[in-house]
């Protein structure tokens, strides 16, 4: 190994991995060139940057783990064969499978009235009645349509008003399985002193990990998961009205002995 020494700045050539050499400045107080190299390496990233990287990695693992739990939970949701009965039925629009299921529950006498929340303003009641194949007389007497709700938050707010107006204390909530966790979160935050029974509509089986092999299922689940986290943060920061009894979510078919989740 050759060494190059100048009058004022002593340099030392060190071997590289490729067989070449590079020059480093020796410490003027006698620190070795390799010690100088180690010292500068330790000072490469400030402590706050290293801590930030660790925090970001930890948050990433938590986020990924939460998504796995969320997707597994949604995949295991099933449409109950016996949802029991309630004062009312609430269906959140987003597909005719939801409407068909809600109308069927009404025809079976599972609730006194049905609220269809989030209906397009241009949709006529007759169009909805014909699309679902519901009995015309039953639809005219026992179905209410909400056109004001634009999203899940609006669905919950309008449902709360409707239940209070009709003095209903329990409701069966009908929506798709992937949408059910966020719907129940918003409903339980907006509704007070009510009993909610989830009725998830399953259009595509996601149990057994099938969602891992479907790009569309992954996209839907991931989007819904991020919305759920946002709703969770919002409902945590903005608590429900003080003094009110929160809504209770019960398993379908729990009957007179609801199991709170």
General description of the model:
- The protein is an alpha/beta fold and 261 residues long.
- The chain folds into two domains: 32 residues, no CATH class; 176 residues, Rossmann fold (3-Layer(aba) Sandwich).
- The protein has eight helices and eight strands, in the order ββααβαβααβαβαβαβ.
- The strands form two sheets. A six-stranded parallel beta sheet has the order 5-4-3-6-7-8, sandwiched between helices. The protein has a two-stranded antiparallel sheet with strand order 1-2.
- Helix 6 crosses helix 7 and helix 7 runs parallel beside helix 8.
- It is elongated.
Structural class of the helix and strand makeup? alpha/beta
Radius of gyration using CA atoms only: 30 Å
What's the total count of β strands?
8
Please state the overall shape, judged from the principal axes of the Cα atoms: elongated
What is the first-to-last residue Cα distance?
73 Å
Overall pLDDT: 81
State the helicity in percent bands: 40-55%
Strand order of the largest sheet: 5-4-3-6-7-8
Q: What count of structural domains?
A: 2
Number of helices: 8
Q: Mind telling me the CATH class of the largest domain?
A: Alpha Beta
Largest sheet, in brief, is: 6 strands, parallel
Strand content: 15-25%
What is the helix/strand order?
Answer: EEHHEHEHHEHEHEHE
Tell me what the CATH architecture of the largest domain is: 3-Layer(aba) Sandwich
- Low-pLDDT windows of residues: 1-9, 21-30, 255-261
How are the SSEs placed, and which strands pair?
Elements: E1 11-15, E2 21-25, H1 33-42, H2 47-76, E3 88-92, H3 96-107, E4 113-117, H4 125-132, H5 136-142, E5 143-146, H6 152-165, E6 170-176, H7 180-190, E7 195-201, H8 215-237, E8 248-249
Parallel strand pairs: 3-4, 3-6, 4-5, 6-7, 7-8
Antiparallel strand pairs: 1-2
Helix pairs in contact: 6-7, 7-8
């Amino acid at each position: 190994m050759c060494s190059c020494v100048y009058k004022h700045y002593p340099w030392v050539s060190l071997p590289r991995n490729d067989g070449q050499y590079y020059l480093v400045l020796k410490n003027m107080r006698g620190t070795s060139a390799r010690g100088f190299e180690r010292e500068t390496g330790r000072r490469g990233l400030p402590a706050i940057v290293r801590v930030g990287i660790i925090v970001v990695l930890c948050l990433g693992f938590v986020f990924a783990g939460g998504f796995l739990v969320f997707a597994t939970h949604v995949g295991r949701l099933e449409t109950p064969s016996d949802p029991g009965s309630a004062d009312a039925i609430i269906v959140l629009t987003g597909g005719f499978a939801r409407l068909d299921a809600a109308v069927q529950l009404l025809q079976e006498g599972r609730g006194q009235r049905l609220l269809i929340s989030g209906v397009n303003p241009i949709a006529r009641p007759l169009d909805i009645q014909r699309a679902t194949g519901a009995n015309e007389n039953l639809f005219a007497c026992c179905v209410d349509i909400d056109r004001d709700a634009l999203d899940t938050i609006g669905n919950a707010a309008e449902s709360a008003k409707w239940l209070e107006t009709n003095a209903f204390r329990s409701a069966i909530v009908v929506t798709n399985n992937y949408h059910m966790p966020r719907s129940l979160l918003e409903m339980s935050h907006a509704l007070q002193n009510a009993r909610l029974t989830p009725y998830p509509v399953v259009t595509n089986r996601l149990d057994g990990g099938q969602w891992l092999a479907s790009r569309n299922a992954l996209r839907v689940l991931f989007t819904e998961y991020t919305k759920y986290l946002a709703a969770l943060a919002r409902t945590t920061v903005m608590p429900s009205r003080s003094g009110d009894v929160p809504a209770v979510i019960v398993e379908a078919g729990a009957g007179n002995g609801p199991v709170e989740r």
